[in-house]
# Entry
Amino acid sequence: MTRQQILDLYFLDARHKLIELAAFLDRIERADGKEDFRLKSFRAALGELTGNKKEKAKNVLLAFSDLTTEPIAKAAGKGAVGAWNGAK
Amino acid sequence: MHYIEPHAHMVSRTTDDYERMALAGCEAVCEPAFWAGFDRSSPAGFFDYFSQLTEHEPKRAAKFGLKHFCWLCINSKEAEDVKLAEEVLALIPKFLNRPNVLGIGEIGLNKNSRNEMRVLEMQVELAAKFNQLILVHTPHLEDKLKGTRLILDVLKNDKRIRPERVVIDHVEEHTVQMVLDSGMWAGMTLYPETKCTPARAIDILETYGSEKIWLNSACDWGVSDPLAVPKTALEMKKRGHLAGTVEKIIFENPKKFLAQSPNFKIT
# Structure
């Protein structure tokens, strides 16, 4: 597909998602209380969207990932939250 | 259009879903053993589940003209209890000669713990001993990268395991390359919020090619779409992919992998 064709097919969808993301950050900033590790990872991932670096989707996923290599001693629960809490 | 759904948890779906899948062109559905959304209290719970997968569910699918196949294992979410896992794995050999069983799956990791690793190794041993295909679940979200690396290490270190007989499921942009480099198959799961959207799955196909890769809905009791595969096929057509390419991804590729099991027969 050409860039023009991709814009025709996906621009409105991407614009919608970008505004949702901006509104999410506005919502967070209006609210009281402390941030946590998820927002820190989120802001790091946002940094991957600008500039000419390739593989933006991959780099965003890496920004949320546990980059350690050893198995953990015991699974404390079953769920994942979407960002690695390296400080815990 | 016809397609194979290589990963769907139909015990959690309604008969309406079977009907919609059949109307969309599904010819066969393959159901890995997984977590029920709660921990089973004993091995007997797994015995009943394996019976459901090998006896009851094929009959339910057949009412809509669909072939039903399954995979057996204890899933990684219940693998922290190694003793329970040992007892469940002892049940599996007596089910392996059932006519719709394709192999051992979906094994893998959830939180990447030592006990999960131990149970993964036990299940790889079971697959090797009985010469079974392997279907692997990779962890969710922040745990996926690390878990995929650990799983690949276990599989590559066992020289009895032939990579072309293993599919590593739920790959995304940060894990697909390492899976394909290993010689194993890669599965892309199409979820509305987590894992891949149709657009991203097609991006991955356009970037990494169409060899040793398939699409699945992994529809279950959570937010998921049993028609995700045909919807992605439609998106591929919108993006100008030829009918033959779509057919390869949604039918020929899963057929090629699954046909390595003598039980996988579709007309």
Summary: The longest strand of chain B covers residues 101-108. Chain B has one domain: 3-258.
